[in-house]
Amino acid sequence: MTPNGSSFSRSVMPMNRDDSASHEASTASGEQTAPAAVSGPSVKIRARDINVFYGEKQALFDVAIDIPEKSVTSFIGPSGCGKSTFLRCMNRMNDTIPICRVTGAIEMDGEDVNDRSIDPVVLRARVGMVFQKPNPFPKSIYENVAYGPRIHGLATGKDELDAIVESSLRRAGLWDEVSDRLLQPGTGLSGGQQQRLVIARAIAVGPEVILMDEPCSALDPIATAKIEELIDELREQFCIVIVTHSMAQAARVSQRTAFFHMGRLVESGATDEIFTNPRDSRTQDYITGRFG
Ligand SMILES: Nc1ncnc2c1ncn2[C@@H]1O[C@H](COP(=O)(O)OP(=O)(O)OP(=O)(O)O)[C@@H](O)[C@H]1O
Ligand SMILES: [Mg+2]
User: Fold this and answer.
1) If you write DSSP's letter for every residue of 96-142 in order, what string do you get?
2) Residues 153, 168: contact at Cβ < 8 Å?
3) Spans of all domains in the chain
């Protein structure tokens, strides 16, 4: 794993759409049809028959989706519909919730993430996560980024670690703002800078997938625009999944969108199509603001 590999070309919004992608919808009975294969970019994560229970209460029902490589997929839907729960299935964060039980299969590059041979700590480096509230460690800016590569043994010496820290901060669009104060606390940065620091921390361990759970909901419009621009750059290298309550944000940053409602994945497909030509009346009602 070399986290400081190729550089990114800067693309300009509005973002490109992946029009070749397929569109899947549930049937009238609410049963989800098997997702058609994603055409164009290859599938990074394939989920089938995902059911999640918190104790007796079922939070997700038979979720099946293909999430493409090098692309941004948005999860949208009303509060409590299971977006965060499904996100946590992908890096086994639900394992950390004692009452949570997950059934079904999630494959990353064809490999079952729930297989006993998979170390969840290594999986969570491969599938990084960014939360609603920026959560830098109570350490310096440098240490926030260096911590992961150090514990995963990704650098052989100080020079290499310095290089990983710099390249990760550059990729997160933060280097120019913090290069002269790397030893100051990460918690002293603005909210938007902290969120980019957390993204740099995720990038530093060479992830393949980055999950973002409402990453901009605590940010002002300028900081939000920076994160959105960053997401658009990062998709050239990573598979990104973003949960958002902002339809405008989903339309701006994602090539594919999945709509969840009451624990079910109602439909997923190319973002343009979901927003302009949804197949299910529940999706239509949600995107037109009739509920949620
Ligand atoms: N740790 C938990 N223990 C018990 N129930 C939970 C837990 N986490 C989530 N749930 C329940 O699972 C369901 C789905 O919750 P989840 O947080 O995944 O929804 P969400 O779509 O992310 O909502 P929001 O948009 O408000 O973040 C809800 O009914 C919620 O109350
Ligand atoms: Mg949530």
Assistant:
1) GSTTEEEEEEEEETTEETTSTTS-HHHHHHHEEEE-SS----SSBHH
2) no
3) 38-287
- Of 280, 87, 27, 242, give the one whose Cα is nearest residue 290: 280
Q: Which pair of structure tokens corresponds to residue 6?
A: 């190729």
Beta strands in 113-229 (DSSP E): 127-130, 209-213
Question: What strands lie across the sheet with 264-270, from one edge to the other?
Answer: 24-25, 264-270, 256-261, 72-76, 239-243, 209-213, 127-130
CA of 139 to the centre of ligand 2 (A): 27
β-strands 264-270, 24-25 pairing: antiparallel
User: Is 156 touching ligand 1 by the criterion CB < 6 Å?
Assistant: no
User: Which atom of ligand 1 has the smallest separation from the CA of 85?
Assistant: 18
d(CA 61, ligand 1 centre) in Å: 13
| pLDDT tens digits along 224-257 | 999 999 999 999 999 999 999 999 999 999 999 9
Distance 7 CA to ligand 1 centre (A): 37
C-alpha distances in Å from residue 264, one per residue of 30, 75, 163 = 8, 12, 44
Does ligand 1 come within 6 angstroms of the Cβ of 81?
A: yes
Nearest residue to 268 (alpha-carbon basis) of 36, 44, 28, 16:
36
pTM, whole model, 2 decimals?
0.88
Q: Which of 291, 286, 240, 264 is nearest to 24 (CA)?
A: 264
Centroid of ligand 1 to alpha carbon of 131 (angstroms): 14
- Report which DSSP code applies to 169: H
Helix (H), strand (E) counts: the chain: 10, 11
Whether 83 is in the pocket of ligand 1, judged by its Cβ within 6 Å, is: yes
Task: Please determine, for residue 14, whether its predicted confidence score (pLDDT) is greater than 70.
Answer: no
Residue 260 Cα: closest atom of ligand 1: 21
Q: Which CATH class is domain 38-287?
A: alpha beta
**Nearest ligand (C-alpha, residue 61):** 1
DSSP 29: T
